[in-house]
Amino acid sequence: MTIFHGADGTALHYEQLGDGAPLVAIPGGPGMDARYLGTLGGLDARRRLVRFDPRGCGRSAVPAERASCAFGAQAADVEALREHLGAERIDLLGHSAGSLTAQRYAAEFPHRVRSLVLVSPVGRAAREPDPAEIAALRAARAAEPWYPDAAEADALLAAGAGDPAELARRITPFFWGRWNETARAEAFNPELVPAAPWMREAFYAGSGEGDGGARPVAAPVLVVAGARDGMIGTAPARLAAALHPDARLAVLPGLGHRPWVEDPAGFAALVGGFLDHDRG
Prior knowledge:
The chain is of the alpha/beta class.
């Protein structure tokens, strides 16, 4: 295991894949084991991919204070990792909820970020889905064979009835552009360490409503969203792209919340091309 320590001494785990300039990847969830990121479609062939387990997640230690798991506080852990790697600047990628930590770090340490990639971001400084868009994305899947069960689970969740964990599992097909064997294997990988039940509340503690606390990032930013992402939709990605002055938005047709799984070559070409072009 490869370990470094946060400012409070918490032991934090990371893995490095490939060679070259570091691309630090922050997982979502919140609370996901970073191994679900895989190679991000093969980006380890272009960069030294550094997969980071945030505090209390995956193989990193649980901190003494749960408040330190708030996404804003975790920016300090990204800085500690950069220092540990000995990198003057880093490329930074955040997926889903991890995009909040990535944006906060890039705003607080602008001289340390060469470029920022936000994949299926949940928002700018909080979760910012458009409920109408989410409803439309889910309704558009009505002809698919799994839809009746997923729709029933969705309704039960909204009503606060049933086991939330089981219902969340049943609505998972909405999050993918194509609900096939590949998606099922990735979505229900038994090898990954599950998120702590308290992590979600701790991570979002103090997050603003709407754009409260959102901070523009000066570095070049690529925002990627799947057009069929029934988890968070495309609205948060559009808001993030509008916030950052040097941002490019790519909405990928037919893809869901993990675009690198459904179109690895296309995703790697898009992100790798952005990183290569920005490096000049």
